[in-house]
């Protein structure tokens, strides 16, 4: 799940939601909530190169932050990776020619931690299946962090894949218990217990915390419940979670300047993400110094693309530091940038936190703390030579 713009991945995957006659990959519900989050983040990290690259890597510290572990808790990370390697994914589906295909694979074929990097791989067969957008619908990380129950997240994952068809179709209770990870418990063989302890609480949390609303329906043989299905519809109150909200970017002064110039919302956010606030801000200053420009948005686009000349005045130390921060941020993957922001925010309170939420890494109130944060991640990043900061 790594080097990918989250908004592009999410949109592409959701456009390829599960079709009616294609069965999804089922994963044992015995995974803990944190293991299930780990599985999703690893897949997000690897998604663009699932079939073209046999091995995937992600910074272990970033990985811990993204799934809610203490960044130094390597023992828990090791245990969770071990759990994924011991968990079986199973698929049973029709191919394009209508032939039935059944298969199983461990979720991870191997994983290792070395030098602060988590390296891992999927079996070729599973990578091929996960790479098919008709089979797997990526779970939005903003949504999964809202769940407090592993059963609820498991139910959400298995229902969200069918959001476009409106129903999961009928599952036998045996399959449902396996998806929830309670198939080896005699207690949950009694439907009354399964309904009270698993189904009702999971449905309630999915409906409260996610972008879909699910309703359980059962089918009986005589008086015995034999099958269950879930009807699915979008939750309009929480549909915003399905998108990259971009609120932090929209609050930045550079974004406001771009919008005032005439740039569309999506274009403004794209430029900030690609070039960094400091670079875009500098180009805006340059354009404003050119007087009346007939097509300022087009001019800015060309300036960002071709590197139009900057004002000749030398940069101040503060401006250099700001540019350095933007370069460091730009060098991180989308997953890492999200983790960096959350980790830094966790250190702030009161006015300092408010200022960072408004201005991001350009926050003047947090300038020294921001420098210290990035210097910790990249020692010597702000050492100046005659031409400015040294390369990363």
UniProtKB/TrEMBL annotation:
Q: Which superkingdom is the protein from?
A: Bacteria
User: Which residues are in the Initiator Rep protein WH1 domain?
Assistant: 18-159
Could you confirm whether the keyword Nucleus appears in this record?
A: no
**What Pfam families does the entry give?**
Rep3_C, Rep3_N
Q: Which GO terms describe its molecular function?
A: DNA-directed DNA polymerase activity
Q: What keywords were assigned to this record?
A: Plasmid
Q: Which InterPro entries match?
A: Initiator_Rep_WH1, WH-like_DNA-bd_sf, WH_DNA-bd_sf
UniProt entry tagged with the keyword Ion transport: no
A single BP term in Gene Ontology: DNA replication initiation
Q: Which family does it belong to?
A: Belongs to the initiator RepB protein family.
**This chain belongs to which protein, by name?**
RepB family plasmid replication initiator protein
Q: Give the originating organism.
A: Falsirhodobacter algicola
């Amino acid at each position: 799940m790594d080097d990918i713009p989250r908004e592009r991945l999410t949109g592409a995957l959701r456009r390829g939601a599960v079709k009616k006659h294609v069965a999804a990959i089922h994963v044992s519900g015995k995974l803990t909530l944190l293991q299930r989050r780990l599985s999703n983040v690893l897949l997000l990290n690897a998604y663009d190169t699932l079939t073209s690259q046999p091995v995937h890597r992600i910074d272990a510290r970033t990985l811990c932050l993204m799934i809610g572990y203490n960044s130094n808790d390597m023992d828990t990370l090791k245990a969770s990776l071990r759990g994924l390697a011991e968990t079986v994914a199973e698929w049973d589906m029709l191919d394009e020619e209508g032939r039935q295909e059944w298969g199983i694979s461990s979720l991870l074929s191997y994983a290792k931690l070395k030098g602060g990097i988590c390296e891992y791989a999927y079996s070729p067969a599973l990578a091929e299946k996960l790479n098919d957008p008709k089979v797997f619908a990526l779970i939005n990380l903003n949504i999964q962090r809202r769940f407090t129950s592993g059963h609820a997240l498991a139910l959400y994952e298995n229902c969200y894949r069918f959001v476009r068809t409106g129903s999961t179709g009928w599952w036998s209770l045996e399959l449902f218990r396996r998806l929830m990870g309670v198939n080896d418990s005699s207690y949950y063989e009694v439907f009354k217990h399964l309904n009270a302890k698993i189904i009702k609480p999971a449905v309630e949390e999915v409906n409260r915390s996610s972008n879909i609303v699910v309703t359980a329906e059962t089918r009986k043989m005589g008086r015995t419940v034999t099958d269950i299905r879930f009807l699915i519809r979008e939750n309009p109150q929480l549909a915003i979670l399905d998108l990259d909200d971009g609120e932090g970017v929209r609050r930045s002064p550079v974004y406001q300047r771009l919008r005032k110039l005439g740039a569309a919302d999506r274009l403004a956010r794209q430029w900030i993400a690609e070039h960094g606030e400091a670079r875009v801000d500098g180009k805006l200053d340059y354009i404003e110094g050119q007087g009346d420009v007939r097509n300022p948005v087009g001019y800015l686009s060309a300036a960002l693309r071709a590197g139009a000349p900057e004002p000749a005045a030398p940069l101040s130390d503060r401006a250099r530091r700001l540019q350095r921060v933007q370069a460091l941020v730009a060098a991180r993957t989308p997953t890492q940038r999200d983790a960096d922001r959350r980790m830094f925010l966790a250190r702030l309170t009161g006015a300092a936190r408010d200022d960072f939420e408004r201005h991001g890494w350009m926050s003047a109130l947090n300038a020294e703390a921001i420098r210290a944060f990035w210097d910790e991640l990249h020692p010597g990043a702000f050492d100046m030579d005659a031409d400015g900061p040294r390369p990363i």
